[in-house]
Fold:
Amino acid sequence: MPRLNVNGTLRDFEAEPDTPLLWALREQLGLTGTKYGCGIAQCGACTVHIDGAPVRSCVVPVSAVSAAAKIVTIEGLSRDGSHPVQKAWAALDVPQCGFCQSGMIMAAVALLKDKPNPSDADIDAAMTNICRCGTYNRVRAAIKVVALGGDARRAGLAIEHVGGRS
Ligand code: FES
Ligand code: FES
Structure:
């Protein structure tokens, strides 16, 4: 039986070799945080990491992913939303409908790992994910908050919430 190394665990699955990795993750392994948007590598909703690199899983056949390759999905970033990128996303209320956001976060995590202090041009080059809710400005701001150490106030990007949370 084929296996995938997902979020630190070897998992058995059953799928035809040409099945996109996205569907093995969602349908076989129950990891539904990774979303289907376009199916043609254009929107980025299906972004996961393979050996640290962001990959659009809708166009990667499972037969192309060895059991030695380390896959990380949004579920594997943290158990409780405590990854610095997730915290910045929450602090700046980045998501609207949320559908694209796990892919956005996975792309941002890969960018920040590669370039801890990305320029606007770096962000433009790396963040090609599509968001029909138009969260692009807040995605950019949240990436900058992470780059500046996670403090939205220090970054001058704090949002005042009802009830005083910021
Ligand atoms: S669903 Fe994979 S890029 Fe859109
Ligand atoms: S938050 Fe709705 S598609 Fe991006």
Remarks:
- The radius of gyration is 16 Å.
- The chain has a mean pLDDT of 94.
- The first strand starts at residue 3 and ends at 6.
- The CA atoms of residues 54 and 106 lie 7 Å apart.
